[in-house]
Specification:
Helix 1 packs parallel to helix 4. The chain is α/β, with parallel strands linked by helices. Strands 4-3-2-5-1-6-8-7 form an 8-stranded mixed β-sheet, with helices on both faces. A hairpin with a 3-residue loop joins strand 7 and strand 8. It is globular.
């Protein structure tokens, strides 16, 4: 059975974006970029909620020509070629960039994906979609990358009710960011 991994960047004070929606505070150094490559090798499908989809599809299609950051230049082609599923009640298909849309039956759709063939599934960021899938008990692993910054507000990391987690690993990258790897208790 495929695992669903929730991968999210957060500030030390627990926000995934700033008070005005800004996401310009993460740092992808060489070690964190190499670890991201390891995670991407484990998965064959990216999952997004609408807000994160709009951010990702607005950046990654041309990131390898618009940026000179080594991570961006490498990941852009991976992003374009990897199948993507977008969960939204407001978007209308068809979507570009090898993406399909699911607008209802989230629990059934994700359960079907998890029981199907293939590598693991990766939910990138998005606290709203993360909360929905966590509340449904569909997330198998939570990988939180904590960056050395405080934002003072924004979207919380994972706005769910009380849920126990087991810490299964930690790792430091580039003497800056820290991975906290959890599974549901």
């Amino acid at each position: 059975m495929r695992k669903l991994i929730y991968w999210v960047h957060t500030s030390v004070d627990g926000f995934i974006d700033g008070p005005n929606g800004e996401f310009d505070w993460t740092t992808m150094g060489p070690e964190l970029s190499a670890y991201a490559d390891e995670v991407h090798d484990r998965v064959d499908t990216f999952l997004y909620g609408r807000v994160v989809w709009e951010m990702m599809s607005g950046y990654w299609p041309t990131a390898d020509t618009d940026s000179d950051h080594p991570h961006d230049m490498k990941f852009a082609s991976i992003w374009r070629s990897t199948p993507k599923i977008v969960f939204s009640r407001t978007l209308r298909g068809p979507l570009d960039w090898n993406a399909s849309l699911i607008s209802s039956n989230v629990a059934e759709s994700v359960a079907d994906l998890k029981s199907g063939p293939g590598k693991d599934l990766l939910l990138n960021g998005g606290s709203a979609m993360g909360a929905v899938l966590a509340d449904l008990g569909l997330i198998d692993e939570i990988q939180v990358i904590v960056h050395p910054v405080t934002l003072g507000g924004g979207k919380p990391l994972l706005p769910v009710g009380r849920q126990g987690l087991n810490l299964v690993g930690t790792r430091t990258f580039d003497n800056r960011a820290v991975l906290l790897n959890y599974t549901p208790a």
